């Protein structure tokens, strides 16, 4: 009797098992975050800070915005990078650690839908509203009502600094554009890009160095060279993702949307959330795999619990092990 090949094609994926193994508590959290982002974006009003007509930091023209990297590219490109990274990591690099195509697809869905960038987006929006920092082109958005022939002197400048309420009101009828000018810190585009780039890079480092234990025997020269070449290509891919994230941040500066500190703040927020999500996802990864030699409860009762990174060959389902997790 011919045995069915567990590593068949896409049509051989057992979708019921795949979705039955996912982290639905995390899916629920992601759904709540999406609702919170929508509420904050539509309802919350940014904090109002005083502005001064002579402040050169907010005097850049809005008409000269270049939109160097469009918003859809800043989101779509990192998502595709994460998709490709996790896809290659689960279906190619870590193929021998999976018992079947269903197990590999389950791991792929688990990591790709972890939702770290959604949390980063929420925190960025909340911080923007709380801080209310002015964009470099705020005065062009505001279009303040300046009396004709007004001349600034040292005396009225210093008096205005001591009395922030002395400022000229905005005349732009597009209040949304004015409010958007108060949402500079941190940079949301930079936060999302760094979140996805750091998450994908951390995942790739784990796959390449800790997920599979080192082989006990020494490889031949060409095997070593091929392994090193793949490692170098993976490093180049990680650097490319991080450079793209920095490129998005730089584009926000040269397009007069953010100051450098806004971009740095966005990068820190995105990186922080990515590390938190990744350090939670990796230890829980085995929960989505198919245990063909017994139920998860039986494994737990026998003491075969989740292994730390870089565990033994038996824990990782390597060839020669008596158990596949």
From TrEMBL:
Gene3D superfamilies documented for this protein: Phosphatidic acid phosphatase type 2/haloperoxidase (1.20.144.10)
SMART domains listed in its UniProt record: acidPPc
Keyword match Transmembrane helix: yes
Transmembrane segments: 24-49, 69-93, 105-127, 188-208, 229-251, 263-279
Domain of life from the UniProt record: Eukaryota
GO cellular component terms listed in the entry, alphabetical order: membrane
Positions of the Phosphatidic acid phosphatase type 2/haloperoxidase domain: 109-278
Subcellular location: Membrane
Membrane topology classification: Multi-pass membrane protein
Name of the molecule in the record: Phosphatidic acid phosphatase type 2/haloperoxidase domain-containing protein
